[in-house]
Amino acid sequence: MKELDIKKDVQTQFGQSADSYVESKIHKEGRDLQLLVQLADLKGTEKVLDVATGGGHTANALAPCAARVTALDLTREMLAAAEKFIKGNGFGNVEFKQGDAENLPFADSSFDLVTCRIAPHHFPNVKAFLSQVYRVLTPKGIFLLDDNVVPEDDELDRFYNQIEKIRDYSHFRAWKKTEWISMLEAVGFTLSQLHHFEKNFQFASWCKRMNLPQEDQQRLQTVFRQAPQKAKDKFRIRIDGGEVVSFAGEAMVVKAVKGI
Question: Which residues contact 226 (CB under 8 A, 6 or more apart)?
Fold first, then answer.
């Protein structure tokens, strides 16, 4: 599939799911969000860019600590939902801009901090994205990357990406931790910290967030039930009465520094 088609899929999918992402408990209350704020260690003078802001939760969390936050998203409806959410919380130092993560519409060295949370698995060209982040950061600027990752085992990698693609056709790829480290270092970043943690998904709400048709939900139920035992063990798939109830994924937060 061509990159332009993938990005159109992202806009379509998230345009119709914008409000549900603002209200999503995982996005709104995930413990990774507080970790991002902690790792940002803002002093109040910084210019911050939140790429693929989605429901605006990261931009909202950083707004009280920064001089200026720019919330960028590819999808117009998402930006509108994020703006309503953030302005509703009383923050006036956040601006909203529609744009592509792989072609950031900003000058070189424009931001002291760039964040991107639970989004890069939708990007068809993450190397271009990382190069753009590096470009718009000031020297010694900080990049905080937060996304779902897959195990190093190839079979488990394929299983996780398969279920995500069924659930969300705009999903491109969740990467391995080692792949992210390699790509970040290749661009020129120095890794400062890496945090790894488990994420628990309730099957019903996981599907509902994407307005998934019943037919696709049943297909996913079948894939989970027929999963190899090592996938059932690794992802802690819980099945009750023949129905999938929940499963566990994993995510990674990385703090990387430009040019040291």
Answer: none
- Residue 233 falls within a domain, yes or no? no
Give the range of the structural domain holding residue 81, as residue numbers without chain letter: 3-150+170-200+250-258
Q: Cβ-count burial of 202 within 10 angstroms (0-12 exposed, 13-18 middle, 19+ buried)?
A: middle
Residue 217 lies in a domain: no
Q: How many domains does the chain have?
A: 1
Helical residues (DSSP H) of the chain, grouped into ranges: 3-15, 18-23, 25-29, 31-40, 57-62, 76-88, 126-136, 154-167, 177-187, 203-208, 214-225, 229-234
In this structure, what CATH number is given to the domain that contains residue 143?
Answer: 3.40.50.150
Q: pTM of the prediction? A: 0.89
State the residue for tokens 């056709």: 169
- Each residue's pLDDT tens digit, 121-145: 999 999 999 999 999 999 999 999 9
Please name the helix (run of DSSP H) or strand (run of DSSP E) that holds residue 41, with its range, or none: none
